[in-house]
Amino acid sequence: MNAELTGAEITIRCLQEEGVQCIFGYPGGAVLFIYDELFKQDKVRHILVRHEQAAIHAADGYARSSDKVGVALVTSGPGVTNAVTGIATAYMDSIPLVIISGQVPTGAIGLDAFQEVDTVGITRPCVKHNFLVKDVSELAVTIKKAFYIASTGRPGPVLVDIPKDVTQQQTQFVYPDKVTMRSYNPVIKGNSRQIKKAAELILDAKRPMIYAGGGVILSDAAEQLTELARMLNFPCTNTLMGLGGFPATDKQSLGMLGMHGTYEANMAMQYCDVLIAVGARFDDRVIGNPKHFSNENRKIIHIDIDPSSISKRVKVDVPIVGDVLDVLKELIKLLKTEKKKPELPSLKEWWKQINLWRERDCLRFDRDSKIIKPQMVIEKLYQITKGDAFITSDVGQHQMWAAQFYKFDKPRRWINSGGLGTMGFGMPAAMGVQLANPKGKVACITGEASIQMCIQELSTCKQYRLPLKIVNLNNRYMGMVRQWQEFFHGNRYAESYMNALPDFVKLSESYGHVGIKIEHPEDVEGALKEAFKLKDQLVFLDFITDQTENVFPMVPGGKGLSEMILV
Amino acid sequence: MRHIISLLMENESGALSRVAGLFSARGYNIESLTVAPTEDPTLSRMTLVTIGSDEVVEQVTKQLNKLIEVVKIIDLNEGDHIERELMLVKVRAIGAERDEMMRLTEIFRGSIIDVTNKSYTIELTGTSSKLDAFLESIDRSAVLETVRTGACGIGRGEWVLRV
Predict the structure, then answer these.
(1) Does the beta-carbon distance from A307 to B62 stay under 8 Å?
(2) Are A59 and A70 in contact, with CB atoms under 8 Å apart?
(3) Do B17 and A182 touch (CB under 8 A)?
């Protein structure tokens, strides 16, 4: 018989059994026994962040840039409440995470104990599932379930709340090989009749369009999506979450669609006759007002693993519930056996129309400006990194410019908070990305407002020598707020001016990093090159950019996709 | 339209709050909700009455299905079903009212389960609309207290909801 282990030992053993190499966390009273066990082993590396929000974002970036489950460890009470923003961020973007939180001892639950909050209650609306472990005998199987639920079906964060006394109790440790749950059986294989119907629609299409979302990235189906699009010669657009799912430099790519999508992508969405939605959810920032996007004018095929995503905002004609990877494989197989091919003359006509839309050159900007244009910085970053860096971003104008101007050819290279739009996400996420890809070039595109929301993580970067390149597009405004105020609130810039900014160069240097301030367009390239030459150093690049630059095209809220404001 | 949704879920603490939380978070309305363990004590059966368009109710059932603890779910309106609700009404019963209340209770096939010299407590079972009809038919000022369980429902014939 094996010796009995404590709950704390079991927790760490479970992580080891799951093959977890790296976790992000912050200690506190309720998790002290777990930290004690972490201390005694060296299989699971712990990264100490400076705020729990960053622990979750880092685990999130770790997960997004690899195909692993991200893991975070936080204490009870404020540890959990600080983590909530990170958890909600991961939930909105369907990122597989396991969060282990400490809780006050079972006997103290409900008595308003020190650092007690109703963790299961607070996190319930923003997790895929959560558990409170009341007895050590349930601990191992609960953690197994957490990893299983987080990583299967539509992925998402799962939280396991462990009271302190449970981490002290002892029991035999048995880690189950697998778990089955009668109440949780995600559908993986698509219905073959539906796939057949989809194939028929595809072959009849005269003005087809592929609209691919984050589901393609999450199910690692970029290769299959690319194969499908190329074999059919169909145009493909990617959502903000789906960038990299189809190579942006491919001639069939129309770039990103949506509120700040390209003219050609949005027009093609609006005027196509068959739309193939792959792992995308017709989000309000993507299709605008659903009233302007009815299925009367086009047939819609929708592939998604989550049945509740189907016909939620837009009614679809051929829903296929299943894993994107699996369904695409089946669809490709079927199309290969079909003798019928898409009608070439009409497809040619359609491409002609798309190319006309392309000529509108909707992403143009003033390249001769004497003030640094933010778009230019990202273009240079793209050139210097040869399109091969991992790019994280915060939220706002810089995020949209990054999505528009950095051409992602590979999946899991573009890491941003798409659903929740969490400012402060970029740098901690980049830490996770760097730890998951130690040899990768990692840049965080941010703004002077967003970066200050998790600026304390410069300290974590120092401790673990994470050589991030922070590309700060500093326009002394909350740029996106300012843009909306300019367009829709009569130029009244209420509280959107960033006053009393720190000297970012000195700030970075005080943490032991390198800081460079760049004020002239001609210095942009040199600074970026220098930053990437400093392979072992975090370099904070503070670009002083044009304050009045706006993101175009723009579909104003409540409008249809073709009603864009253009440059 | 009014829909009766029946579901089986793991009989675990917190499961009910997930369902209730889902309704408030997504802005669906709950007319009534009843829940109790089944013959298999690991399962609870819940009946939810909600009002919404077909699209909304479709989303409600999909979202409920997504909850990890929900094992199975049906919309009883998709087939023939029986619906029952239990109501206890305490009414004033003095003088001539005593006979009148007894007669009405008989007409509605209820029973008087507690009696004092001033009041009756009436037990009544039926569809929710039948219970409404009973309350309509008696003098409102005579009603001292009502308790209703909310509707529960079951499919007709061979139509069963089980694991």
Answers:
(1) yes
(2) yes
(3) no
Residue A21, CA distances (Å) to A24, A41, A464, A488 in order: 11, 12, 15, 48
CB-CB under 8 Å, B21 with A124 = yes
Asked whether A503 and A448 are in contact (CB, 8 A), the reply is no
Do residues A468 and A391 make contact, with C-beta atoms less than 8 angstroms apart? no
Contact A87, A160 (CB under 8 A): no
> What's residue A247's pLDDT?
98
Q: Is A291 exposed, middle or buried (0-12, 13-18, 19+ CB in 10 A)?
A: exposed
Burial of B146 (0-12, 13-18, 19+ CB in 10 A): middle
Measured distance CA(A290)–CA(A434) in Å, rounded: 39
pTM of the model as a whole: 0.96
What digits encode the pLDDT tens for the residues A134-193?
Answer: 999 999 999 999 999 999 999 999 999 999 999 999 999 999 999 999 999 999 999 999
Q: Please count the other Cβ atoms lying within 10 Å of the Cβ belonging to residue A517.
A: 17
Tell me, yes or no, if A164 is annotated catalytic: yes
What count of CB pairs under 8 Å joins A to B? 34
Q: In the numeric block, which tokens belong to residue B151?
A: 């509707």
Report whether B50 contacts B30 (CB < 8 A).
yes
Interval A321-363: pLDDT, tens = 999 999 999 999 999 999 888 888 999 999 999 999 999 999 9
Interchain contact B18–A (C-beta under 8 A): yes
Range A540-553 average pLDDT: 97
Q: Cα–Cα distance between A440 and A435 in angstroms, integer?
A: 9
- At residue A295 the predicted structure's pLDDT band, cuts being 50, 70 and 90, is low
For A186, nearest residue in chain B (alpha carbons): B66
Q: What distance, in Å, lies between the first and last C-alpha atoms of chain B? A: 28
Average pLDDT over residues A393-422: 98
What is the predicted ipTM? Answer: 0.92
Residues of chain A that touch chain B, judged by Cβ-Cβ distance less than 8 Å = 120-121, 124-125, 128-129, 132, 149, 181-184, 306-308, 310-312
A434, A435, A436, A442 alpha-carbon torsion, rounded to 10°:
0
